[in-house]
Prior knowledge:
Elements: H1 11-21, E1 29-30, H2 35-39, H3 41-50, E2 55-57, H4 60-64, E3 69-73, H5 75-90, E4 106-111, H6 112-117, H7 124-129, E5 132-134
Amino acid sequence: MKPVAAPVRDADEIERTFSALTGEKNSGLLVPPDAITTAQRGLIIALAARYRLPAVYPLRFFVTSGGLMSYGVDNLDLYRRAASYVDRILKGENPGELPVQAPTKFELAINLKTARALGLEVPTPLLARADEVIE
């Protein structure tokens, strides 16, 4: 496996990146969590389907929009934990003395309809671990 970074800033660069990947045998896509990929998620999902590229996305809503699968932090858990910090600060604790927290809860979502369209069979153990499976 050879990873290739493809930083993109707009829709044109996204389309060029997908075009370049079509010539590569057994290609796939790992979409990072950032403002561009989130804003252009519809285009990215459509291009992944058109070029028949399996893609893993950072957030569940990519999968509910038609993406293959996502694995990333559980945002609701992060918001809940942030609320407890706000509460502690409002009660007088010094923010500089609160420990830095890292995500501890992650979500795996799989879209079986997209997997079938790509001709992929998702292994049963992976399906068993998924937090959400979209038929």
